Fold this sequence. Notes:
The protein is of the alpha+beta class.
Amino acid sequence: MPDRSPAFTPRPLRTARLDLLPLHPDHAAELAPVLADPALHTYIGGEPLDAPALRERYARWAAGSPDPRVVWANWAVRLREAGALVGTVQVTA
């Protein structure tokens, strides 16, 4: 079986207003309502997922790409002032 460990591991990042946290399945419960607006999916595709389905998705993403030549990096975005998750950021390389 090929090694699936990514060449890049997402680390927490901080800006003046935001914290980017490596995406974890535990973020699903808080992010499901944030990502539930069907209008959002007009732009990103798919349809809103409930928290259990989102948790499964985030667990797959956290495990990394099945292709060892591809790196998946995913973060949850927290608006520091509100102390709330407001979305996600994804990079594929």
